[in-house]
Design goal:
The protein is α/β, with parallel strands linked by helices and 289 residues long. The protein has one domain (2-288): NAD(P)-binding Rossmann-like Domain (Rossmann fold, 3-Layer(aba) Sandwich). The chain contains eleven helices and 13 strands. The structure holds NADP nicotinamide-adenine-dinucleotide phosphate.
Length: 289
């Protein structure tokens, strides 16, 4: 039986769906009782657990052959590092105390670095703590999610503009669909590697200008790229609802990306194929249906 955190989210739901399709026994973790029914209807067991609560988590992972876990970013939190520390302690403690044999963790490119990467620092901490538990860890390190476009669809439709937080809008970067990450995580649980490894999960190379064009195509209009100057990144992010601390942290992440610090440095690369335009068309259809 496999335990899947973040089942109401993008990657966690994709992992759970794939494992159920493969006929595996699945226990999903949710935070709200009303999120249980859709999973029970699909044949999954459901537990309520918070990723910061060691005791809940320990009971939830007990007896499992493998655990999919993530560090959700709470960008309204005034201290991302404290949030990361509390999730790290609870998750690594539960995995260690219950001697879970295999863990697939949603990490990120850049998680091998201990600093200078904004919120990805927390993923470095989770990877490091999980490795120390003795479990066989598969740290999945995607680049950008294609689904990040979701955050700007409403703004783009209303303004005709596509905001870009990069000094290199025409630089191609690997962007992966979350369903492809879910497939990679499910595979890591079904057939764990013989030792712990870090796996870069990359999608097709797409620039921010390409994304603007793809979103325009999906919306049926032409979008004007709006390159936000670097000194204004934190201020603009704060205006969208991020805490001041989170905005500074995310701006550091964007600078790290521009500086090439998120490049693949894992043990191997999985090259996923879903095109960004395919994902963006679905996101737009979901939003308008
Ligand atoms: N966006 C990118 O480009 C990118 C790139 C590389 C890596 N990442 C990593 O991917 C993560 C996001 O993955 P995603 O898109 O699948 O997430 P998502 O769709 O935002 O979903 C987050 C999931 O985590 C759950 N969750 C949040 N806080 C929790 C808590 N304290 N205890 C238990 N469950 C909790 C949520 O449950 P509720 O429904 O209850 O809220 C939800 O199921 C980021 O946090 C980052 O670590 C992102």
């Amino acid at each position: 039986m496999f335990v899947i955190a973040g089942a109401t989210g993008r990657v966690g739901s994709a992992v759970a769906r794939r494992l159920l399709q493969e006929g595996a026994e699945v226990r999903v973790l949710v935070r709200r009782p009303e999120d249980a029914a859709p999973w029970q209807e699909r044949g999954a067991e459901v537990r309520q657990a918070n990723l910061s609560d060691h005791d809940q988590l320990r009971a939830a992972v007990r007896g499992s052959a493998g655990f999919f876990v993530l560090l959700p970013f709470d960008l309204r939190s005034s201290d991302l590092d404290a949030h990361a520390r509390s999730v790290t302690a609870a998750v690594a403690g539960a995995v260690s105390d219950e001697a879970i044999p295999a863990v697939a963790m949603l990490s990120s490119g850049g998680a091998d670095r201990a600093s200078g990467t904004g919120p990805i620092r927390g993923l470095h901490e989770v990877e490091t703590a999980l490795r120390a538990t003795g479990t066989r860890l598969t740290a999945l390190r995607p680049g950008h999610f294609q689904e990040k476009v979701t955050d700007v669809i409403t703004y783009a439709r209303a303004s005709g503009r596509y905001p870009i937080f990069s000094r290199f809008p025409d630089r191609p970067r690997p962007m992966v669909a979350t369903a492809d990450i879910g497939d990679a995580a499910a595979q890591a649980l079904l057939t764990p590697a013989s030792r712990s490894e870090a796996v870069d999960v990359h999608g097709p190379e797409v620039s921010e200008l390409d994304l603007a064009a793809d979103l325009g195509t999906a919306l049926g209009c032409e979008l004007m790229p709006e390159v936000i100057p670097e000194p204004a990144w934190a201020e603009v992010l704060t205006a969208t609802g991020l805490s001041a601390h989170a905005a500074e942290s995310v701006a550091e992440l964007y600078r790290a990306d521009d500086a090439g610090l998120l490049a693949p440095r894992g043990d191997r690369v999985i090259q996923a194929q879903t095109p960004a335009l395919h994902t963006i068309r679905r996101l737009v259809a979901d939003l308008t249906s």
